[in-house]
Amino acid sequence: MKKIAVLVSGRGSNMLALIDACEQGTLAASIELVISNNADSLALLSAQKKNINTAHLSSRTHPDPDALDIAMKDLLDSYKIDFILLAGFMKKIGPKTLSAYKGRMINIHPSLLPKFGGQGMFGLNVHEAVIEAGEKETGVTIHMVDGEYDKGAILAQRTVVIAKDDTPESLAAKVLQVEHVLFAETIQKIIDGSIILPAN
Ligand code: GRF
Predict the structure, then answer these.
(1) Which one from 109, 127, 143, 180 is the annotated catalytic residue?
(2) What pLDDT was estimated at residue 10?
(3) Which residue's CA is minimally distant from atom 7 of ligand 1?
(4) For the chain, percent helix, then strand, then coil, each to nearest 5?
(5) How far apart are CA 161 and CA 43, in angstroms?
(6) Which of 31, 42, 46, 195 has a CA 20 to 30 Å removed from the CA of 8?
(7) pLDDT digits (tens, 9 = 90+) for 36-91
(8) Ligand 1 shell residues, CB under 6 Å
(9) Percent of the chain with pLDDT over 70
(10) Which domains can be identified in the chain, with CATH numbers?
(11) Residue 110 CA, ligand 1 centroid: distance in Å
């Protein structure tokens, strides 16, 4: 059974969808560890309620960035993690962790990358920009994590049609529903070999 760590910062709805998929058996993995840079994140609380190991790692616990990087890598190593999934994690991954888990770190982004990605493109900002640009469709991207925001190889995408009366909030809700399905589906395809991860 593959061991998964989920990195979160806020609400944790994608994390909960992944936990559900594991519980239902549609994702042949177990969520062994949830790490957040935000000690008060709802995601940490939800994971604790499900008896999943959690950790708060941030500049508050480790003011020195290199020490934080080493602490994250050591914690992941100690749980013998196979894949790291970023689900709303807002911080850059340190170089030691990134190289130790190169090719096994995956992010979800609420747009059709490369459009509407990169620094500052998170949360409602994405959906506001998509509507502002007059796009007819948006969607979800699952991609490899490399050193840059939202730049890694794309593993899966699914489109969401934008209705004339969509607001950033209504669009965010539609996209989030697709996220909750596509993330677990894509990780399962990696586990069963129907998606081959790039050598990176
Ligand atoms: C999601 O929209 C995800 O695509 C993005 O951050 C958001 C996290 O939401 N990376 P949640 O914490 O999983 O509810």
Answers:
(1) 109
(2) 93
(3) 88
(4) 35, 20, 40
(5) 28
(6) 195
(7) 999 999 999 999 999 999 999 999 999 999 999 999 999 999 999 999 999 999 89
(8) 8, 10-15, 43, 87-88, 108-110, 176, 179
(9) 100
(10) 1-101 (3.40.50.170), 109-141+156-200 (3.40.50.170)
(11) 7
